[in-house]
Amino acid sequence: MKIAELRAYPTSFPLPPDASVTLGIGRAVKRDAVVVKVTSRRSPPRGSSRSTPTRR
Q: Which end of the chain, N or C, is less surrounded by CB atoms within 10 Å?
């Protein structure tokens, strides 16, 4: 599989006060994440047949 494109989508959203967590370094008041989309070059799936089926 060859990677054709890679995109990253950063997200950040506040947590409701009742969902915040106190850690050793302070209180978590928001959640951060990154969604990564990997697009590959188009190729036949593994195990697929490249020949056309024969008719009987």
A: C
